[in-house]
Amino acid sequence: MNRRHQAVGRFYGLLALTAAIWGVQPLFIKLAVREITPVSLTVVRFILISATIFLIMRWRRKTPLLPPLASLFPLFCMGVTGVAVNNVAQFTGLQYSTVGNATLIASTTPAVTALLAVLFLRERLLPIQWLGIAISLLGVLVLFSKGSLEALLHISFNYGDILFFCAQLGWAAYMLIGFRVMRHLSALATTAWAGVFGALTTFVYGLFTGELHYAPLSTAGMAYMAYVVWVGGVCAMVFWNLGIKAVGAGQAAVFLNIMPLMGVGVGIAVLGEDFYWQECFGAVGILSGVYLLTQARHILHRRNVRHRNRYRAARRRMHA
């Protein structure tokens, strides 16, 4: 039993480390886009990530490198939404907004994904989950408007924060499509091929917009790139998948709450970013809403258990 607890504890440690890695990652992206355009960073990042995963697949020799033809279009859609839209929007947003806001808005992923699942997959949610989505999105609005009613009425939001939310829409779509693709394709192959299609799509977009160009990186720039590719990309994804396999997606999702804490902390400590009381209210709304959404069934289960226990205790007193 002790060994089992120790093993689970190690996986909890991996999940916490992964969330911390992802929480710090926007800082390295913000520093990297000072030397390279968001489009160029996205292309290079996913070429390297996909190449690394293909090498891992080749070494393991357990899964075929080529996907079935039926999976090509869904993989292309994953590349467009989860790589091109998500990364370019997030990387560009970091030129206009803060690392703290990037990680806070990223933590709305469960709420945005659940909403898209209801709209496009006709999934059903419990009333408490709808409440969680509403509170979470209200927190986003507070974050967008900095608590200003005038900004809300005139839809005068920070451009970077809007891009962060667009990035989350892209990521939510990526996850919903990926859930179906991975019924027939391994997680490694899905990630690698979505990365290839995303890099190609972003490359074409960059050619047409003129945002794709080569720029020699400084030593610091190469270090930022290495973190974004291999630490925040490959290592974090492997750690996350190991953690989910060991403790389950529900428990793993709780660790994502570390991300905004890390993001806000490093933004203030390293970049001297400001964090006002209005943003605190927005953060509380987002995290509270996501907690209600992801833990709704556990909350209701605990409540039902309490009610059952009270009912049984009352009956025992009546018969005593």
UniProtKB/TrEMBL annotation:
PANTHER family per the UniProt record, alphabetical: INNER MEMBRANE PROTEIN YTFF, OS03G0707200 PROTEIN-RELATED
GO cellular component assignments: plasma membrane
Membrane spanning stretches: 12-33, 39-57, 69-89, 101-121, 128-145, 157-177, 184-208, 220-240, 252-270, 276-294
Compartments, as annotated in UniProt: Cell membrane
Domain EamA: 14-144, 159-294
Membrane topology per record: Multi-pass membrane protein
Pfam families: EamA
Coiled-coil segments: none
Keyword annotations from UniProtKB, A to Z: Cell membrane, Membrane, Transmembrane, Transmembrane helix
Domain of life, source organism: Bacteria
Name under which the protein is recorded: DMT family transporter
Main location: membrane
InterPro entries: Diverse_Substrate_Transporter, EamA_dom, EmrE-like
